[in-house]
Amino acid sequence: MNNQILKLDSIHHSYRMGQNTLEILKGVNFTLSAGEWCCIFGASGSGKTTLLNLIGGLEKPASGSVIICGEDLASMSRRKAAAFRAKYLGFVFQSYHLLPELTILENVAIAGAIAGKNFHDAGKCARRLLEEMGLGKRLAHRPSELSGGEQQRVAIARSLINDPVLLLADEPTGNLDPDTGNEILQLFQQLRSERPDRAILMITHNHDIAKLSSRSVDLKNGILCG
């Protein structure tokens, strides 16, 4: 694998709305290298989350290539894309997306098991990650028993269970108060320093985050600028 983690080549995407077609992305070109933390800014409805979903293989672009670690995710079958995603990518969402009926240890471990780890190894890895997040005494708690910041730490631990090379984060501080949000951002800084070959791509409305990241781009009129 070379230094380039991600390459987007002429990504187009649109949605049907009744009789009309709404063109969201109009030829997006972009590269992200190992060690970079890039923030994507843009107005609501500009297509930021759609773009992140395409990069993560959750949707397929109408046309164009999504090259991650030399492989075109956009051309893969759904099954192959899911396996690739589990191996190379980690996701952190604004709303955490934790399973309420499971403990936080189970929430993290199950992500590793789904990706192919045996459950014993996944559990050991999940415990270690949660302890590193400062949640070692909360392993048996369910998400509803945690604060928002703690739930986001669980979500970050889950995203790391397979040691991804690319972290995709969609407004990870959007539901948090400023102080807790800053703690989460400091955690991202730590993750970046601990693994220099990992890249982070983050959607945010908070321009203060740009001071922490290595670069930022704007999604305007269906293309990335900057």
Give a summary of the structure in a few sentences.
By secondary structure, this protein is of the alpha/beta class.
Structure in words:
The protein is globular and about 50 Å long. By secondary structure, it is an alpha/beta fold. Strand 1 (4-17) and strand 2 form a beta hairpin. The strands form two sheets. A six-stranded mixed beta sheet has the order 6-7-8-3-9-10. Helices cover 32% and strands 29% of the residues.
**Computed Rg:** 17 Å
Largest sheet: 6 strands, mixed
Head-to-tail CA distance between termini: 26 Å
Structural class: alpha/beta
* Estimated share of beta-strand residues: 25-35%
Helical element count? 6
Question: What are the secondary-structure elements, in order, as H or E?
Answer: EEEHEEHEHHHEHEEE
Helical fraction equals: 25-40%
Shape: globular
Average pLDDT score:
92
The tally of beta strands, per DSSP, is: 10
Largest sheet, order of strands side by side?
6-7-8-3-9-10
Ranges with pLDDT <50 over ≥5 residues?
none
What is the secondary structure topology, with strand pairs?
Layout: E1 4-17, E2 20-33, E3 37-41, H1 48-55, E4 63-68, E5 71-72, H2 78-88, E6 89-93, H3 104-114, H4 119-132, H5 148-159, E7 166-170, H6 178-194, E8 199-203, E9 215-220, E10 223-225
Helix pairs in contact: 3-4, 3-5, 5-6
List key phrases describing it.
226 residues; alpha/beta; six-stranded mixed β-sheet; 10 strands; globular
